[in-house]
Amino acid sequence: MIETGIDIVEVSRVQQAITRHGNHFLKKIFHPEEITYCEAKTRKYEHYAARFAAKEACRKALLSHLSYHPAWTDMYIVNNPEGKPFLRLDEKIMKFLTIRYLSVSLSHTQTMATAIVFLDIGEK
Question: What is the C-alpha separation between 89 and 93, in angstroms, rounded?
């Protein structure tokens, strides 16, 4: 079954949450690899926002197949050496689902970030 999720977020909302809640927010929402990646960027809040949108999009694609709400850090984005983003799912999710294919696309401007996720979920 093909599932799709899409989300768009204002960069300023993510920036405000990070500024207000600091490391507590970062560690609750973002995987350590995502934090390392974003903190190395000049316009880091755009990158955080795109990853937040990807997590929301992934949750939308997954929720009808899971009996629980996955943690924010159970879904995370890593980039290959050329910069292409890849969606990684934690073992807890993979234990319940057979994911035959997954794809993510991110985009952002100075003010908005968006992501779309495609999952091909098979029978377990």
Answer: 6
